[in-house]
Structures
1.
Amino acid sequence: MHVTFLQATIIAIWIALVMSRSLLGGATLTLRFSPMMTGLVVGIVFNDISQAMIVTAAIQLIYMGVFSPGGQMPSEPAVATAIAVPVAILGNMSPASAVGVAVPVGLLGSYLYQFRFFINTFIMQKFTDKYAAAGNSHGLTLSLIFIPIVASFVLYVPFMFAALYYGAPFIADLIKTNSSSFIFHILNVIGGGLAAVGIAVTVYVIGKRSYIIFFLLAYFVAVVAKPLNITMVTYAIIGAIIAFIFVLAKSEAVTTAKDSIGSNKSGSHANVDDDDY
Amino acid sequence: MTDIKQRSIDLKPEEITKKDVAIAWLRFYFANEISHSFDRYLAGALMWALMPILKKLYKNRSDLAAAYQRHLLFFNTQLTWGGGTITGIMSSLEAVRANENYEGKPISIDDDLLYNTKAGLMGALAGIGDAIDSGTVQYIFIAIALPWAQQGLAIGALFPFVAFVCYQLAVGYYFSQLGFKLGRNAATEVVGAKMQMLIEGLAILGLFMMGILAASYIKVNSGLQFTLSGKNFVIQETLDKILPGILPLIVVGGLYVYFAKKGLKVTNALIGLTVILGVLAAIGIL
């Protein structure tokens, strides 16, 4: 089992496009935070989209809710996926045990991203200030767009290539030769349980402690309704309806309360209600 | 009027249109994190976004250079709510300033006011925007698509990506136009009552979907069984009889309490939970 030169190169370039934040700019937010698209690219490159997507779904669960207020993340899901999915495909691993590979790789990836900030700081001080003072628009585009992208490519392409070309087959072989059921049992338990981290982070980030009742409601509905195989789209619609009812009831209550306090101001409240959308 | 005519017509600031602001927003969307640096964060992206507008407004090279320089001070916010709104507000304020500058009036929109407007809004809007966009909307899309990915379908990756990018572009466009139209007053609109209701609704939907995901995808089962006075006890079966799904809920609840007490330490949680699960699996409890 091995990774070809071409495969490693394509995935390395994809990761550089994402991590330099240049592929459609702001679109890299979800490309970097969510492993999904990277998993798909790996699947296409390794000609096994189906297996790649199944593994990526397991990785996605641990990285739910992971995002970076202020730009720094504890882990890099895209980098982790680019290594873990090839390892899983080459080593025929279960999705849950692939998670065990993804976590440490993701942690390593975050140091590399820090280094990118360092390079950009240097570029800004060296070039951007000079061009701004001279009112040189082309120079600014060069120093704010082109040079940072090139710098990130220099940083990420060789690193990812080496990790994929030499690292991934090595890890896959290592896991294969040591594939005692005991180790796989531990990896599977860890992989299955770590999904809780992403979900807990999301619940924490969404905030409002009293609203956790909606989380519990959904949790027990889903536990009870498991045999019915209700789709996520259906659940999303039900969730949206519940959210709408709650907000509606709350705003009606506020309006009624306000009206009963000051009837002379009721005209303006009615206006506010009329242009609801 | 005569005063204006005496000046070179070439130096008159051009009018800034909605289209200019839309382009500035798209430029901010593209440049967003590319030049992210330790000391200035996203200042370079905002400046690059405003470049065509500043070029239209300041025909004098030294004025233009000054405008470039004042937008290179530390700036950090969230992409759509913060970035959209502030791109719009800066476009409208710079247009006012450029005209004052051209007509020789005293400058009411000085460097401090521009920077303080940015600094006052960037944190608050980033707080809302991060929680809504990255923390809620993104994961609602992902939650919907996750079962498709688990079946091995490419749409599981494509749907959340395309949907989220469309969402970002639309929201940022809306806020940039709002910021341009209302100037500094836009801030009250963005954090206004109606937006608050929308935010609450999204928070509820987000939490609801997380509950569904937690029940569907967290796998924590006890493998423990023992024989007591001739009877065989399987712990998981007993647990399922009392309250199905109790173990995953305990794990999520424990993590939530940890975050609530110690702050959002995701790395610690990942490592800690890995160790706990690994040990429990090794000794056969899980």
2.
Amino acid sequence: MELELKGITKRFGSLVANDGIDLVVAPGQVHALLGENGAGKSTLMNVLFGLLQPDNGEILIDHKKVTIHSPNDAIAAGIGMVHQHFMLVPVFTVAENVTLGHEETRPGGLLDRRKARADVRELSRRYGLEVDPDALVENLPVGIQQRVEIVKALVRNANVLILDEPTAVLTPAETQDLFRIIRELKAGGTSIIFISHKLKEVQAIADTISVLRRGKVVGQAAPTATEDQLAALMVGRDVQLVVSKDPAKPADVVLAVDGLTVTDETGRIWVNDLSFDVRGGEILGFAGVQGNGQTELCEALMGLRPIAAGQITLNSRDITHATPRRRLHSGIGYIPEDRQEDGLIGAFTVAENMVLDVYDRKPYASGIRLNLGAIEKNAAERIPEFDVRTTSADNPVGTLSGGNQQKVILARELGHEPKLLIASQPTRGLDVGSIEFVHKRIVAARDGGAAVMIVSAELDEIYALADRIAVMYEGRITGFRPPTVPVEELGKLMAGSTDAEAGAPGPPGPPPSQRAAAASGLRSDEGATREDTASKRPGGEEGEK
Amino acid sequence: MSEQVPHRPFWKKALFAVMEGNVVTVTVLAIFTAMVIGGLLTAFTNTAVLNAWGVFFSSPWHAINLAWDTAIGVYIELFEGSIFSPHTIAQLFQQASMSTALHDGYLSSVFTPISNTCLQATPLLLTGLAVALPYQAGLFNIGGESQWIGGAIVATYLGYGVSMPPGIHVIVCVLGGCVGGAVVGGAVGLLKATTGAHEVIVTIMLNYIMADFLAYLLSFHYLMQAPGVNPISPNIDSDSYLPHLFGPSLYVNVGFLISLAAAVFVWWLLTRTTTGFEFRAIGKNPSAARVAGVNVERNWVLVMVVAGGLAGLAAAAVIQGTDFQLTGTAYGTYGIDAITVALLGRGKPGGVVWAALLFGALYAGAPGMESITGTPGSIVDVLQALIVMFVAAPPLIRAVYRLRTTRAAGVSQVLSKGWNA
């Protein structure tokens, strides 16, 4: 079935989210929609799925005009959608979730569970989905939950499947599995609309790429187009995918961690006897598959998690048992992994969020009195400095796009010149333009003399930023490497090989040259064999609103 | 994303704001709707009106007029009993001179209704704040009642059990009431902070405990029972009475000023202090607050201490302002009314002031309305319930008045968030 969108226009007040968009999706094709957050990708798909009504334009299926007023119309027309945030009932089984909304009954009004289970099993077998119809959804990892969503669409005979930012919540290994499933679906004749702002994924899976910018289709590209070309199309200017930086000039040790061990309430060891130093003026990058203790390490460093053993020293002061507030006061800046949960208060204004962890210090407070003038002035200075796009400093921060929210956090944490910056997944969910900005600011903080610790699941990011790479596996550091290390070697370390097995250990000092390995296009796939609990939470990522 | 706001004349902006159904509009329309339904209810439960419907076909206008007059009559009497009554003004001007008018109480009778409204509003405002403040910090305080009792016990005991110089006695009693409430409130916060017990459960259970504790205190002469067989405390000393604001003939007393000052204090605390910043932060996103260095548990205790203190002040205002002794049922429905007031005021100090004045007016007007029109005073409870019901259902109000459905998410959040916040 061929799907065609003609001149779709959708306005929200004075904002034109979709401006005369034309798009043709051929049968059995993966059509990628690439665009920055806020480019109008999700709006377009919501129009196609009947969640929004377009102001102008029409939708044609096999050259016949159709009207789609609701998701039911869309499903009847053979369009299925997997939302970024899954629409599943956690306490229901897979089969129950799949059948929900079009339950088939046996005589007497009883649910035909057997049929539902058989349907799931049949689809699972045909496309290699490997979904157990009797599993409870809440017990499934995110990647499998996503497959349940795909099964839901397929059971309803979807010929066109819309995947809205499907990889945002997946681990690298789960992403690879998803790509395999997409290829199987394609081979079966299903068309896929794949929405993303990640260049590599789009190159890897798409047959055709349409680039959206500010509500318009600004270009079509083949998957052979280079990353730089795609990025330039997306952002509308040339983008530095790897920030240029001078060699690090490491100074004194700022953060010294010695024998740190962190366990959770159940006694599970997350961080196991970890020791490392971070010096002023250098960036230490923690590579590793998510769920290997990086989150727990950062939280323990911030005092948000009890420490079982070990010592943390900041500028030769012992802060092992200090409260989070005292650590913040002694000069740590922290960019948490989950910005909406831990980094920002969505209902607070931009100005308030910009002082969220310094509100009790001068000049923002004297005694218990808040100095609203100083808070306002701070926002007025930081908003242009960090290029936060908001109509007013009094807007709730929850109304900003993901990239702008991250800039608010950066403005807060970097605006007060921290001695140590701990940044966990600093660019997760951001588009290329924002990533470039965040990277530049982090490098600038290093050049200003701050000690910087980066945790990232994106190897590209580690290569682009780190002066020294530490690889974490199951709560331990399996090796330190300079950023010139080949990807394969990092991969082995991330999979748990020790220094000796993974090749000659490099000296744990700053390397001579920086950018050598930066172009390597791999994410941290290698070691992602175990299920990490951290990835079970959907959400945390946001697309355009 | 540059949004161009087209220039509009003022009246258009105002109309737009109304049509968008913002918070104030929805509240006003909710009150209006409740009054319409309340009016229908009074008209159709009145026996005279029902008899008139019986002869509808012989004299149709009679029935309709009678129904209208009955409904309107209730509101006129409520208004005259709570705001002002034109008759009192007429009487005032019939007096020969200003001095006789003053002497015979004609001037004060003009202000009697508004004075009664303020008097009724005082405890509602204070207990309403005791719910609204913790709400801002993400806690749902159902325990206005137990905190009120805690304050009442201390204020009453200090009132009759201790003798002090006049000026000091009244202050000590008020502060004692505040402390009594704060102890009960603080206990809730402490239990939540140390054991993780949910504040809704704890406060509800404490309501029973404190009510029974009060009954216990009032059943033994060596505890708080006055001589005699009734469960009632001795009268407090007249030194500890809250002074009237405008002479003896108007009942409104210093308690009303205390309640207004408390509202200003809560507003200041929430918007102008680091403590309030922390309260609001843990209310909106406790995990981000924790990451930002806020001690969430400590703030739970603190906010409940302050809330309990406010409820204790309400008790002091009642004991020292109007009751002058403590009975086993003096707490009445303050705890539940406080939730309604806080809901109608949308958890904001300013809103709570208006809500308390509205409900205070309803209570002040009810007795007069009942005796003049014969409509049961409980119509006031019905009105109160209807108002809260409509305020809690903004989509209903927007649908009835065809308002646009932007904004106005505030209240549904109040209700839906309450239990797990």
